[in-house]
Design goal:
342 residues; alpha/beta; Rossmann fold; 6-stranded parallel beta sheet; 12 strands; Lambda_DNA-bd_dom_sf; DNA-binding; transcription regulation; LacI/GalR-like_sensor
Length: 342
Amino acid sequence: MSRMGTQKEIARRAGVSVSVVSAVVNGTEHTRMSDDTRARVEAVIEELGYVPNNAARALRRQRSGTIAVVVEKLENPIYRDMFHGIYDAAESHGWAVVLGDARWMRSGSHFLAHLLGQGSIDGIILRSEGLIDDEVLAHLRARPTPVILIEGRHGLDGRWLAIDDAAAGRVATQHLLGLGHRDIEYVGGERWVPSLERHRGYADAMLDAGLEARDAIPTGYGSQSGAAALREVIDSGRRPTALVVDNVLSGIGIHAAAHEAGISIPGDLSVIAIHDADIAGDVRPALTTVRMPMAELGARAVESIAAILEGSPTRFGLVDEPAPVLITRESTAPLQVSPRPW
């Protein structure tokens, strides 16, 4: 839609000052007005089809109206809800979003040059800072552009947001315990903080039930890694009746490896994965998961950038509302009275 009318024309038709119109357009809360006045201004805005000139606003504020989101492996399906949250929140501020893959955020890259170019980006949402070298981090610290780290626990200048991974591990493990399983193992990465937190939640739930919490079965973050982890369990001779898997893609890989090995899910082995994705409902049997508040995480990151730019206070740390949600599907079942050895 093209921009129609001006704020001055809206003010004239609504019988108010231009500052009142500006307050309605920008969502400013500190300008006092009655509900009737606000409704009258909004009606004129709709009548004229007025669209704020975000480019001019950004120029006045010396901002680009663009934020960057940099993650590892853009194709990862767990990002879908997070991206939705980011785009919805960015839209409410009139911002555009640039997506980038962390693998290209390295010293000397064109992507990094544009990202750090003078005035080209108003804020950066960054995931997987472990892939970024010290020189790039130094560049980020030297710039006034706010950087929000997600899924970490430190961030630049303490600006980090993360979902409650320990709670997810507890939810997954308590589900299996409630089905009567006692020989439960955890499959996950060894060094990545979210996986360590999920293992902590698993361990807490096992200890609360008076059971042994075992070390994680190490794996990466993809279907092939999950398949390799199950083969390792098979070769070890251990025969758990249930697995908590720290990511949905590895859970899919365990599915495939179990089928190849003649292991019935959930008859011989119940499997639950942390994070949800459409593919979890497409495999057979469908994979039980723990859905995380990824949309809320994305929205909070955008709102944090907005608050920093406006000089307003903002809260960093865990995004623990809503809590992780159990999505029960077909890959988990009550423990059989006499489970069949693999």
